[in-house]
Amino acid sequence: MSSPLDRLIQELSRLPGVGEKTATRLAFFILRSPKDYAERLSQSIVEVVSRIHCCSLCQNFTESDPCAICANPARNGSLLLVVEGPQEMRSIEQGGSYRGLYHILHGALSPLDRIGPDELKIKELLNRVSASPPREIILATNTNVEGEATALYLIKLLKPLGVKVSRIASGIPVGGDLEYVDSATLQRAIEGRREV
């Protein structure tokens, strides 16, 4: 039978990006911390699991339904930005320039990982677009193989619905030097150029 410390290390090592060494460091940090810290940490984990659920509209994690973004009348309901996960939505929100609505897929198509359309929130997206078509759907999936495959799949499903579908631009980051940019990124930047 394993000790409570071994069980804690084992559970922490199941978190994404946390290996056994990091899990061990975190476990000893918790063990050395005041008892009330461990109690607050465990309580916050229990609360997030019991109180947070998906918004029925955008599929973001929220306590209320609809979430604060979907319920905000100041948001532009004619724009719908499709992202892979809540993390990407948070990043876009922190930028402060996008004022439309979102739809979160909760992943990307990845046959090798056995993630198909049924594992994503694609049916919810199609139902939402059919019920209340936006003026434009902006696909903001990642530019890796899975993200591109997901975007292409969504384009095939969304185009017949008669809505404008666009893809976010990709290319050279602000402050980037051309000599350090890979050839695929350079090609995308040239192809995605716009008139000034």
Which terms would index this structure?
13% strand, Helicase, Ruva Protein, domain 3, 8 helices, 44% helix, 196 residues, 2 domains, two-stranded antiparallel sheet, four-stranded parallel sheet
Structure overview:
This protein has helices at residues 4-12, 20-32, 35-51, 68-71, 86-95, 122-131, 145-158, 183-191, and strands spanning 53-54, 61-62, 76-83, 100-104, 136-139, 164-167. It is an alpha/beta fold. The protein folds into 2 domains: 6-51, Helicase, Ruva Protein, domain 3; 70-167, Dna Topoisomerase Vi A Subunit, Chain: A, domain 2 (3-Layer(aba) Sandwich), CATH 3.40.1360.10. The strands form 2 sheets. A 4-stranded parallel sheet has the order 4-3-5-6. Strand 1 and strand 2 (61-62) form a beta hairpin. The radius of gyration is 21 Å and the shape is globular.
Predict the CATH topology of the largest domain: Dna Topoisomerase Vi A Subunit, Chain: A, domain 2
Overall SS class:
alpha/beta
In total, the number of strands is 6
Question: Helix count?
Answer: 8
- Which outline best applies? globular
Determine the mean pLDDT. 92
What is the architecture of the largest domain at the second tier of CATH? 3-Layer(aba) Sandwich
Give the low-confidence spans: none
Beta fraction: 5-15%
Q: Radius of gyration in whole Å, from Cα?
A: 21 Å
Query: Separation of termini?
Result: 68 Å
Strand order of the largest sheet: 4-3-5-6
| The top level CATH class name of the largest domain | Alpha Beta
Main pleated sheet: 4 strands, parallel
How many distinct folded domains?
Answer: 2
Reading the helices and strands in chain order gives: HHHEEHEHEHEHEH
What fraction, in percent, of the residue positions are helical?
Answer: 40-55%
